[in-house]
Structures are given as C-alpha cells and as structure tokens.
Amino acid sequence: MFGDLFEEDYSSVSNDHYGKGKKLKTKALEPPAPREFTNLSGIRNQGGTCYLNSLLQTLHFTPEFREALFSLGPEELGSLEDKDKPDAKVRIIPLQLQRLFAQLLLLDQEAASTTDLTDSFGWTSDEEMRQHDVQELNRILFSALETSLVGTSGHDLINRLYHGTIVNQIVCKECKNVSEKQEDFLDLTVAVRNVSGLEDALWNMYVEEEVFDYDNLYHCGTCDRLVKAAKSAKLRKLPPFLTFSLLRFNFDFVKCERYKETSCYTFPLRINLKPFCEQSELDDLEYMYDLFSVIIHKGGCYGGHYHVYIKDVDHLGNWQFQEDKSNPDVNLEDLQNEEIDDPLMILKAVLLQEESNLIPVDQLGQKLLKKIGISWNKKYRKQYGPLRKFLQLHSQIFLLSSDESTVSLLKDCSLQTESDIRRNDQQLLKTLTSEPPGLNDRPSCPHWFDVNDSQVQPIKEEDIEQQFQGKESAYMLFYRKSQLQRPPEARANPRYRVPCHLLNEMDAANIELQIKRAECDSTNNNFELHLHLGPYYHFFNGALHPVVSQTESMWDLTFDKRKTLGDLRQSIFQLLEFWEGDMVLSVAKFVPAGLHVYQTLDGDHLTLCEIEIADGEDIFVWNGVEVGGIQIPAGSDCEPLLLNVLHPATSSEEEQCQQLIDSPYVFPSNAEIGSVFTACAIPDGVILVNSAESVGEESWTTIPKEDLKKTFREQGLRNGSSILIQDSNDGNSLLTKRGKWITSVNEVDWLQVKNLCQLDSEEEQVKISATLNTVVFDIRIKAIKELKLMKELAEDSCLRPIDRDGKLLCPVPDNYTLKEAELKMGSSLGLCPGKAPTSSQLFLFFAVGSDVQPGMEMEIIVEETISVRDCLKVMLEKSGLSGDAWHLRKMDWCYEAGEALWEEDAALKELMLSSGDTLLLIEGKLPPLGFLKVPIWWYQPRGTLHHWKSHQDQTNCTFSQGGVWRANSIQDAPSDAHAEVSLRYLGDVEISEDATLGELKSQVSLPPAARTLLVIWLLPAMTLPSFSEFSIPSPAFLRAWTVESRRPGRLLRVHYQRLREYKLGQRTEICLEPLQKEENLGPQHVLLRTQMRLPGKRAYALPVDLVWDTARGWTAGSLRHRVADFYSLPVEKIEIAKYLPEKFEWLPVPSWNQQITKRKKKKKQDNLQGAPYHLKDGDTIGIKNLLVEDDDDFSTVRDDIGREKQKAFALGRKKRKPFVCGAATSPLLQRCLPAPVDQKLLSPSTSGASDSTGPTLLLQVLARFLVSARCGHGLRALLCHEQRGRSIAGQASALVTRSVARPPRLARTWPHHRCQPADTLAPTLEPRHHLYTKID
C-alpha cells in the first residue's frame, strides 16, 4: 500500500539496485535485551525507518488514539492467524498496530520490531532502506487506517481525534457580502521562513487580512463588478489533537536548489488558540492546548535522521536521570553514638538507599545488621519491641504491605519535618534524605523523554528549547487539549484498556523471553572442563597415562564460570560418589610425554574467572600426593621433556658398535643433563645437543663436563630436542658414519627431475641445484639441458611432483617459486609432455566408478568457469562412454565416492574445486532437487516374536543368499537372537523431502500400480518386487529405522513428520521391520528388545519388544518397574542388564534406590541416557528371574567365544609384521577360513608351475575376509598380477560383490558383476598372486 505511493518519487531508479521481494529475516542469535532504566521500549530501525519510528511512538503516547484502537476486537478486525485464508476478512494494518502498541507497553525488550507492520504496508526491503518525509507519512498512514477501518465501529477514529475545519472568507467593502469556503484538515502546515515562531505564523495566517485594492480588485457577485475586498481565514472547528507541520524545507530560485531553514523558530509548551478561531465566546480553557510531542529532524534537505521528544502523559516510564539512578550510599559509620541509638533515623537511612524505597522486612533487618554491626533484637528490641511492631507504630512514616512482608517510605515523608529529630542533626539528615531530581512524581513536573529509535532517555522540559533552531530542530509539533484528563487508574498502568488476548500474548512472550535469556546467559557463561580422575591413571615414564583408555579416564563437565572453586569441588564430589578422602583439583596439560600436573587450585571462595580457568581446561582430580602409590611431581619446574637420545649400539660382547640407536627418553626439565648416562646405562662419554629446529652438522654442540650438572631447561632443551652420546675416547664423530644421518644433518639444496617424456635420453634423472626462491621455469629448462632432450620441449612440457607412491600430482605453473609451489628440497619432479594449466584453468583427475585403483585415474585440463554439465560431457568423451545417465562426485579423504555435484549449471570455481582434485564418474542420474535417493532394506530380527510365520522359511532361505547383511556369528555357539541382524536389500527409491514418513511406508508397501508418482519415484531398474512376498495389512504395521554400521540405528517415529525434518541426508539408508500390530510411538517412548534368561542355561529366550514410557525420567527404577510389570514379576526379584554386542559383554543396571552415598547420604541420581549405558531404541535388555536363578552372570557361551576371538585378534595384530603376502596369515583372515588350511596354499607359488589351488582358495578367503571386515568401510583388498602387472581387481570385486551382497557404497557401483558366480573366477586366475591389504 505504501510502497506504491512512495514509488513515484523514485521512478527513475531501478528496483534492481535495491533488491526485490521480501527482505531476508535473519534469526537473532541472542534474545533481545530487556528494557533499560526508563522502563520504556524503543523501536528498532530497519535501515531507514527512523521517520516511521518517531511517528509511531507519537501515536503510541497518544493514549486516546491507542485505547480507541484497542477497543476494536477480533470480531471486527479479524485475526492474524486467518490472514492467509481466502474468504477471511482480516484488517491487517490495525491488527499489527494493536500488536505493536501492546509490545511497546508490555513486552520486556529494549526495542520492538516494525517488520510485521511494514510487511502489512506492502513494503519491500528497498522501501525500508529509503528515508521519506514524516509529514507525508502522517497523512498516508491516517488515510490507510481510515480505509482499513471502514465498516467497523472505529470508522471515524481519525476524524474524531484529528479532524478540524478552516473557513476562508472574502468580505466585500461595498455591500459587505461575505463569501465563505470551508476546508478540512488533519494537520496544519505553517511557514518558518521570515517568521519568529508558531504564534507569529498563526497570526499571519488567521488574524491578518489580505486586502484586494488598486490593481488587485475582487469581483463581487452581488455588486457584479470589481470592488475592494478583504480576505481572511479562521479556525472554525478544533480537534482534540492538533498537529503542526513546519515548512523547514524551501527552494532557492536563485541557486536552483533546495535548502533547510535553520533559523530560530519558537513554539510554546501551552498555546491559546482563541485569537485564531472564528468563535471566541467560549471559555479560554476550550482553546488551550499543551505540547506533548516534537518530531525533530537532524541533517539537511537531502538526508538526515529523525527522533522525537515525547511527554509521558500516563507516567508509564521511569523519569529518572541516569546519573541519579542510584542514590549515593549513606555513610552510617560517621554517625555519632546518639544518632545510632535512634532506630527511626537509621531505618529511614537504610530505606533511602534502596532504589524504590521498598524492601522486604526480613532484608531490612539484615541490612540494619550490615550497616551498624548489631542486630535489631540485640540493640532495640528490649526498648522498642519487635521490628514489625515498631514499623506499625510509625505508620505516618513507614508503609507496610497488606501481608506485612514489605515496607517502604511514604512519598510525602521527609526526615527534616520529623519532630523526633534533633536540630543539630538536620544538616546530616538533609544529606541522607535528599531526593534526586526526577523522582518527584507531582503533576507540575512533566515527564519528557527523547525516543531515538531503540534508545529512550529522560530529558528536562527546558531541553525542548534547544530544538528551536539549527540543523537539529523541530519539524512536527503535536498538541493536545488541556481539558483532556486521564483517569486515575491509567496512571502508571501499562495494562490499562489492553485487550485480554493481547495481554495473554505479551505475558507468554515475556515468559519465553525470560527462558531464552536464562538459556543464553547459561550458554555464554558455561564452559567445558575435562576432568581427569586420578584412580584411572598411572604414573609411567615420567608422566601420567590412562590405565584403560582416554575415554574412560576423562569426563567432560559443563560448568558455570561465575561459580566458585568450592562449588566446582562440591559438584565433582556429587558426581564421583565413590570418592573418599581429600580431593585436590590441579590444572593439568598434555605434553608429548603424557599428562603433567601443574598448579593446584586454591581459594574456594574465588570464582573460576578470578582464578583464570579457561574453556577446555584439563583438571586433574586426585588426593594431592600420589597416584597409584607413586608420588607425583607437579609444577612447571619438573615438566617432562621427551628427548631423542642417540647412543652407540652395544654388541653381545658389550662392545660399542659404529651403529647409532635412536631411542625416546623422558626426563624432568629440572633434572641434570648428566642423568642421561644413568638412563642409557652408559658409564661415561661426551654429550652433544641439537635443538629440534636446527639443521646441519654445525648445530651439534658439545656440553662441557662442568655443565653436566645444569638442568635440561637451563641448557635450553625442549620437547623433540636430540642428544647424542659419544665415547670420549673416540675422536671421530659417529654422525658421518651413519648413512641416514648424512642427509639429515646437511642441508639439501637440490631437486631430482625424472625424464617422463618417453624420449631417449642418456640420463633417466638429474639433480638440479635450487633454492626456495628459484622459479620453476628455470628448473625445467635446466633439466631439459642436462637430460639432453630436444629444445622443442621447452614450449610443450611441464614439471609434476611425484609423491612417495610414485603418483604424478598436479603440474606446477612455471611462474611459481619453489616456496609458492610448496615444494621441499630433495623432492622428486617428473618432466612430462604438455603445458601446465594457466591461472584460469583447473587440472583434474577423474575415474569411472567408485572403485579407484592406483594409476587408473585419467587427467583433464578445463577452464574454471566451465559448468558441471559441460565438464561431465568432456570426461565422458575422453573415457569413451556415452549416455546421459551419469553424474559427478567428489572423492572424499578415504578415496571413496563423496559429495555429489548437484548444481549442474554451476561453474567449477563456484563449487570451490581446485587443481589436483579427483572427480568420480558414477553411473546413474541424481535425483531432482528436493528429493532423496534412499536405499530400502527389509529387516527381520531373528527370532523376534512377530506373526510373520508363513514367511519364516522363505525368509530364512532367501536371506542366506546374496543381498543380505548379517552380524558375525560364531560357529557351534548357542543360538542367541541378539547375535543375528539380517538386512535384505530391496532397492532404491527417490522420494520428495516434503513427503511424510507415513507416505514413504504406504507408497513402498503398496503394489507398483497403486503407488503415487507425485510423491515417490522408483528407479527404472527397481520395482521392489520383494514386497510381494509379504502381506502387510497397512503401513502402520511397519517400523522404520535408519541403517548405521550395518545395523538398525535411529528409530523414525512420527508418521506425519516430513522426511526433511528428520535431516536424513543424501546417504541415509532405511530399513523396514514388520510388526505384529499397529504402532504409534511418541517422543517419550523407547523401544527395547527384551530377552528372558533361560533357567539353568547360559542362553536366552526369543526377544520380545517392550515399549518404555520415559515421561517420568530415564531412571533405572522406572525401567525396572516397566520390565517387572511387563513380565508380571516382582520388581525386587529381577535383575536387568544391557547387552554390548561389540564387546560381547552385559552391563548390569543396578537398583539405584538401594545405593546410598557415603558422604552426603543422598540417593544417587541416575540417567540411563548418559554414560555408561547410553540407552537408546533397539538396545537389547537381558532379564534374570531371581526366583529361579540367583547369580550375577548374564553372559552366554557365545559371549565367551567372542571375547576369546577378540583377544586372539588383538594379540595377532600386535605380533603382525610387514608382509608381502602376510595378509593371508592374519588372525582376522584365518577366522574366515572354513577349516584349518595349510599356509603354503595361501602363499604365492614360487615354482612357476601352473597350480590354481592356492589362488582359488586365496580368492575364497579374500571374499570371506572382506565380508567379515566390511570392505565398504575402510578395508580394501587388491589382487595384483605379478608377472604381467595386469590388475585383476575387477574380477576380485565380482567375487566380493556376490559375497558381500551389495553393501551400500561398494557393491552397488558394480552392477555388471552382480550376477557372476564366485566359482567362475577360479579358472581365469593365474597361479602367482600377491595379496595386499590396506586398513584405514
């Protein structure tokens, strides 16, 4: 509405300059600040809306306008909730004004927002950034309100409050005929130029007459000729509120430019309009108007800023100047003894120090004790009685509340007028009781405020005179009739006449703001501490090390840094209920040697900020003396240093050899350097020191014998420094006799360049001397000359770094220096044909499929501005592929297919691709934007009590084939249902992110002909035929899980929730589980698999699903009661435990209500969501009936076998050595063998005879090995043909594909191998193979 009216002033300006559409509203990180001491709310500036804010504040502080707007209810204006309904009649502008006024009155925030109001105006972001004229806005806003209120009881709101009339008269001098013309006005425009003030301008307009004579005669209709006449204007009708617009801006016709009048222009605080009115017979009070708002413009005619001076008619704000906000403290210590004996004076002095002179009676006694050092009962009770009785007896001075809980001073009370105050104390009492200016609330002292957007400050009435002239001067004046009186109940009552629905909305918003501020305050003042528990550490090799693992020995604690050290100690005591004895907290830090304790924290009364505890600080919790029976050195003086000690090796005959042994040693920094001999068991010798940063033989320094008693710190040694021990009788240095040290102690100043141009050359590689500032072009030219190659290569060759695996990296631009190219001295470079890419080009590697083998990548140089679609076409053309069913993905850090390049029209530069990146050509088109490609699995828990009996045999048979994942099982172990997890792959679906979970279930479970294509698209090759094997009554009989680590992970609960809200991501997989009955789990429900232990057997019955309502908490007691109720057993006769399948262990859940702490005698508060249980959906809970079996063992035979296998595997990993064919003998691989196999069959044949037994069995073992190790998650196996160098990884992958049965990221990328049997590979393999493994 407003945007169209203002647009004509900017018709020549393109809207594109400002932007189109709605402004992006950013979510505030912190809640808005509360109101300041004035208790009034400002309005936030949206960029150029200061003029709007000033006018809105004026209307807000016009109580009659505000209350008239509040009187219009939802039955007339409608509701904002219905504004999007097509048939609803909603008057948005009045509703938004109501809401804004309610926020300004009641919402506890420093500044309100006008975003919703300007949206109702139809403004866009460019309108909110432009500054307009406030006088023009006043007329437009009133017009918009009148239009919006048509048909309501407030249709005459603007007319009733602001409408007035002017009568223009022309009187004929001859016949005295009067010609009249009446004009309506909502505001009066008055001149400023050549006028001294408002009254002078009104006199010129409405008192002085304009005479028509001489050459300017008037034609009288009555006389029917030109006659002399007089023209005048009068105010006929005065509105309750009168607005004056000052014509500050004029046009200079000489200079042809606009300018602003800054001359002095006075206006009164109260004005009598009787001389300017047509009717003057009424009483003078009828014509008296009081100034209550002045809109001020600061700046020039082409820009500036608006703010407003406003009179608080209802005294809603705290008119108190900031310098007087708090009364000065009264120094009661200077009072004489006779003055302290007077309780009346003391109590008054205490109350006068309170901000509002109001205080609870209990706190009054405490403050009295604090001021005079003695309590009321000891000092005054015997003579004056109890404190409350004393206050009641002096009701002329003190005002007690109705419940006698609080007390305050009467406002008209002054200590100077009390008869019980002696005259010699009057001067002191003036000091104690002097009120700051502004606290007086008398009507004769008006409350004025300067409202400047978000800021509201109190001002004095005389400050208005400063706005008479200058660049910052009055621009609009608002007066109200003096006879308008406000009701007493409206005084200082912001809730007066506010509708109930707005009161409720503001109360709820204030509660929400309080919660957000508390959360924000907690977030800003909380920090993380890492607690290292002494009992979980042991002292070894000069530092502290965890006994088990870092995870179990370190606890993370979030704590408020404003609390004291004593509070932290008490919290740790409550957290560690097993702790006994003293607790000492010390600051610790990780050093290369381990964890070292520095300073001990003292001063329980100090806050954590005061003792300078930082976020993420490591705190060591111990007894302050020893750990594990060993006394711990603490402090920075004894910080452990990890040093590299080189000393001669000792032969079996205890003779020193010429070979050096490099061993790490840890020494305290305050230990003597001579202690190195003792640590290395060397009787004597010479010590040479080399710092960690030094390079070169000359940096080795010999330590004189007299300095051997110096400490390591005094000698300047740090972590990583090297020490060499040499025999004192050996005159030759051992450094030059050790091959590998020759290159490390002499600076390398050359690069090695290899000839990779496939041209004949006398040399295959040469060394080129260089420095870090040498340009790559010079090195390339020198290499061509020394290799004696053709000069033509100078124009068509480049240098490419070679990594340690022999792979050629991205070419280096010729204009780079070695430092800019990040090339180290001694690096190997390859001289290759072809030019290096320019600064606007990208050098990319790409490969087909996700199974990228070393050396299989292809290379391409493209412009960085090329689109993804064009780059894909170039790559397909170079790789000899056709079709449009391909897409590009980045290769992630573990050399697997990573993030897809979704935006096909985006340039490579926009996607932050750089030279050297690897892209993968993956078959299959990406789903459309807003759609997810979700693999669907069928999940049938083994042995779960469901009613799908008719399909059990078929399911077991089918699941044993390819296309299934199953957890590792131990042969000949008892059958436990919790050990088996079967997932059958059904296919991939493409589904909209806006579809609900229920729609996904219903569409997938329906027959293909009944699926809704508008909601879900199936891939062409996928029709999900497997669902035809199951008869599912409805989607409510399906339970959906995400797939994590080849097991069901997160349970997807709410049927009507959109998939977008689950934040599934592009790689999420979903498995569906059939149910016996319909299920609708809420957010407080937890699904657990429960198994009852069979009496007398180390085995469990079939699992049964149990739904646990955690609304009353995640406590062990609540879970025990639920389980006992489910199995109809007494709660005290059961024991439960959580199964940890990855450890083959059961973690008992004890009865916490029986555990009492020794220190505080309080019940321990447990939470099964936290450590060590981390209970979640799908966890297995074992139950033991103590009525038939009373022991502590929850484990099964399978658990024993699994733990033994884990121990054997861990032991085998420790003993494993580097191998060529050693992977075939690893424990993990041996575990996959069907029976013990001769190791010779697994090793490469050395005879050269064609024997296929070994390789065939080796491939079978490889397949089992990859299935067990989950090849899609970091373990890769490569089979390399040794004789011809021909890779047979593709054939091996086919076998792996059949065995692994399409794991998520590996097998599905090899569709052409999917149907090839494993046995068909054996004849194609030749006898000599090496098996290499790489474990990430």
Q: Compute the CA-based radius of gyration.
A: 45 Å
The proportion of residues forming helix, as a percent range, comes to 10-25%
The mean pLDDT is 76
Percent of residues in β-strands: 25-35%
List the total number of helices: 33
Low-confidence residue ranges:
4-28, 323-338, 414-443, 692-698, 731-747, 945-979, 1012-1026, 1153-1164, 1217-1257, 1263-1336
Q: What would you call the shape?
A: extended
- Helix and strand content put the structural class at alpha+beta
Number of strands: 58
**Distance between the amino and carboxyl termini:** 64 Å
Largest sheet: 8 strands, mixed
Q: How would the blueprint of this fold be written?
A:
Layout: H1 2-6, E1 42-43, H2 50-60, H3 63-70, H4 74-77, H5 92-106, E2 111-112, H6 115-121, H7 125-129, H8 134-148, H9 157-162, E3 164-172, E4 178-185, E5 188-191, H10 198-206, E6 210-212, E7 218-220, E8 225-227, E9 229-237, E10 241-247, E11 249-252, E12 257-260, E13 270-272, E14 288-300, E15 303-311, H11 337-340, H12 343-352, E16 358-360, H13 361-372, H14 376-379, H15 381-384, H16 387-393, E17 398-400, E18 406-409, H17 426-433, E19 448-452, E20 455-459, E21 472-481, H18 500-525, E22 526-533, E23 537-540, E24 543-546, H19 550-553, E25 554-560, H20 565-575, E26 584-591, E27 594-600, E28 617-622, E29 626-627, E30 630-631, E31 640-650, E32 656-668, H21 675-680, E33 686-690, E34 701-702, E35 722-726, H22 739-745, E36 750-755, E37 765-769, H23 776-786, E38 797-801, E39 828-833, E40 841-848, E41 858-863, H24 868-879, E42 886-891, E43 897-900, E44 918-923, E45 931-939, H25 952-959, E46 964-966, E47 982-992, H26 997-1005, E48 1016-1018, E49 1038-1044, E50 1047-1052, H27 1059-1062, E51 1070-1074, E52 1085-1092, E53 1104-1109, ...
Parallel strand pairs: 1-2, 5-10, 22-28, 31-35, 36-39, 40-44, 45-51, 52-56
Antiparallel strand pairs: 3-4, 3-9, 6-9, 7-8, 10-21, 11-12, 13-14, 14-15, 14-21, 15-19, 16-18, 17-18, 19-20, 22-25, 23-24, 26-27, 26-28, 29-30, 31-32, 33-34, 33-35, 36-37, 38-39, 40-41, 42-43, 42-44, 45-47, 46-47, 47-48, 49-50, 49-51, 52-53, 54-55, 54-56, 57-58
